[in-house]
Amino acid sequence: MRIAAGGIMHESNTFNQRPTPLEAFRVQRSDELLRWWRGTHHEVGGFIAGAESFGYELFPTLMAQATPGGMVTREAFERLTRELLERLARAPQLDGLLLALHGAMVSEADSDADGEVVRRVREQVGADFPLVVTHDYHANVSEQVVELSTALIIYKSYPHLDHRERGLQAASVITRTIEGVIRPVQALVKPPMLLNIVHQNTNGPPMDRVMAAARSLEGKPAIVAASVASGYQYADVPELGPAVVVVADGAPALARQGARQLADHLWAIRERLHFRLPDVVQAVREASVSDRTPVILVDMGDNIGGGSSGDSTFILQELLRQGVTGWVVVLADPEAVAACARAGIGASLQLHVGGKRDDLHGEPVEVSGRVKCLHDGRYEESEVRHDGQRYHDQGLTALLEIGGPPDAKASYLLLTSRRQTPFSLQQLLSVGLQPTQQNVLVVKAAIAYRAAYEPIAGAIIEIDSPGVTTVNPARFRYRNAPALRGLPASANTEETKYDKPH
Ligand SMILES: [Zn+2]
Fold first, then answer.
1. What is the CA(414)–ligand 1 centre distance, in A?
2. Bond from prior residue into 184 cis (ω within 30 degrees of 0)
3. Which of 215, 301, 338, 420 is a good FRET partner for 53, with 20 to 30 A between their CA atoms?
4. What secondary structure letter does DSSP report for 71?
5. SS3 label, residue 380
6. Residue 190 and residue 241 in contact, taking contact as beta carbons nearer than 8 Å
7. How many Å lie between the centroid of ligand 1 and the Cα of residue 347?
8. Residues 236, 481: contact at Cβ < 8 Å?
């Protein structure tokens, strides 16, 4: 049995005006794909491990992935999809395909870019060819993907820690399908609501109960898989919103019934989805007086994993204004890194940092500091973390020690050349920072950072900070997402108003 594996993964924030070009994708092909992903906690690591567990030969095609950001350019989408199809066409006789797609990819040409990939693949491989797709929990699941795939399997955790398990599940489903042991049929139900990102953590209420229900359904006879996707609120597309996908063995009615049951569960929690988070000023004030350190300040408006700029300065500005010491702020700012590199280790300099990528994430802030360290920006993570990745590269990186009162704990700005999600403590440890010794750590994230930071956190303060991943949907103008009709129950403020969908 020979099964191909590959994927194109991107979470596209349609409110981010910077499109994601081809160069933003890290692409592995053929044997390089195996070298890169074998042994990782990612679903592609699961596809590879499945070869041994289920006795198939794996044919690696292409795997492309970019940090979440603006819509994928037409060119990048066409080039990557075409190459995937060409590699499949040139492959020796195949029995099936395992395809990793994020589920919230939007291209300049397609609001349902994942659906378009599946459509083209299906057109090429034929109607009966086993094609099992995996999605991220943040998928805005499309009808097209469910209709045209043999089975769709979605992560069950956020922070995402079960990629590999889902990859192996997909591998099991496709081999049993090829062997004729099961005949997957699937149903999709999408309750018309928004599940705001602040409520999506699967380790606490209300989603822990919903995911437990999905797992319990999956344990029932003739149920092959039961998935719940949270949806991704930063893509203004018709597919926006949570979804339930249930795969049953040869029994469409059973799949439909299970999907409806789980969707009812989701619908029932919507009245409890209220929240009120502190603004930046209030959050920094709370952090400065906390005796439980380090305090993690969560910059939810600049959530890099949600497609933001990674250079928002609102919190940095406020830390400086309130005279807080002992903090660490990470900013993506290649110009500032270059200035530090020119100055050299040990040099003192004054420079403007952050707030440069767009006009939604604050102004550049003037800081003075001493270059403590320059680093190539590469680090390795072996623990199970949100992104399932092992090898990280944030580009040339500078650690700037910020001057303060002589008896105070030092503060640090970590300046990176690329936007880097804070999913691994190695980001700080690799440049010699001791995160547990600092008073305040600012993470540009929403929930995903928790797998790495929760174990060392003295306190966590989530902030309703401005930015392209603000948790308050009232700050956006949605035009295409009918799911937002159900919004007020999920919104931050009473006065929330939404555009009627066109
Ligand atoms: Zn996700």
1. 25
2. no
3. 215
4. P
5. strand
6. yes
7. 40
8. yes
Q: How far is the CA of 102 from the centre of ligand 1 (A)?
A: 8
Instruction: List, for residues 191-240, the tens digit of each pLDDT value.
Output: 988 899 999 999 999 999 999 999 999 999 999 999 999 999 999 999 99
Q: How far is the CA of 155 from the centre of ligand 1 (A)?
A: 9
Structure tokens at 153: 């399997």
For residue 392, list its beta bridge partners.
Answer: 379
Contacts of 500 (CB under 8 A, 6+ apart): none
- Ligand 1 center–CA 386 separation, angstroms: 8
Looking at the structure, give the CATH architecture of the domain made up of residues 2-184+225-240. 3-Layer(aba) Sandwich (3.40)
Q: How far is the CA of 136 from the centre of ligand 1 (A)?
A: 5
- The stretches in the chain having pLDDT less than 70 are 483-502
Among residues 344, 308, 493, 319, the alpha carbon closest in space to that of 419 is found at 308
Query: What is the Å distance from ligand 1's center to 160 Cα?
Result: 7
Please give the structure tokens belonging to residue 185.
């049929």
Domain ranges (residues) in the chain: 2-184+225-240, 280-470
Alpha-carbon 339 to chain mean position:
31
Of how many residues is the chain composed?
502
For 296-307, b/e burial (b = at least 16 CB within 10 A) is: bbbbbbbbbbbb
pLDDT, tens only, 386-441: 888 899 999 999 999 998 888 899 999 999 999 999 999 999 999 999 999 999 99
Contact assessment for residue 248 and residue 185, using Cβ atoms and an 8 Å cutoff? yes
Q: How far is the CA of 77 from the centre of ligand 1 (A)?
A: 20
Output the pTM of the full model.
0.91
- For residues 99 and 122, what is the distance between their CA atoms, to the nearest angstrom? 12
